[in-house]
Amino acid sequence: MPEITLLATHQLFNGEQRRYRHYSRYNQCDMTFSVYLPSRALQGYRLPVVYCLGGLTCTDENFCIKSGAQRFAAEWGIVLVMPDTSPRGTDVADANIYSLGQGAGFYVNATQQPWVQHYQMYDYVVTELPELIEKHFPVNEQRSLCGHSMGGHGALMIALKNPQRYLAVSAFAPIAHPIAGTWGQEAFTAYLGENQADWAVYDSTELITQNPPPFPILIDQGSVDEYYPAQLHPQDFVQAARFKGVNIRYHLRKDYDHSYYFVSTFIESHISFHAEAFGL
Amino acid sequence: MPEITLLATHQLFNGEQRRYRHYSRYNQCDMTFSVYLPSRALQGYRLPVVYCLGGLTCTDENFCIKSGAQRFAAEWGIVLVMPDTSPRGTDVADANIYSLGQGAGFYVNATQQPWVQHYQMYDYVVTELPELIEKHFPVNEQRSLCGHSMGGHGALMIALKNPQRYLAVSAFAPIAHPIAGTWGQEAFTAYLGENQADWAVYDSTELITQNPPPFPILIDQGSVDEYYPAQLHPQDFVQAARFKGVNIRYHLRKDYDHSYYFVSTFIESHISFHAEAFGL
Question: Catalytic positions (chains A, B) (predicted)?
Answer without folding.
Answer: 149, 225, 258
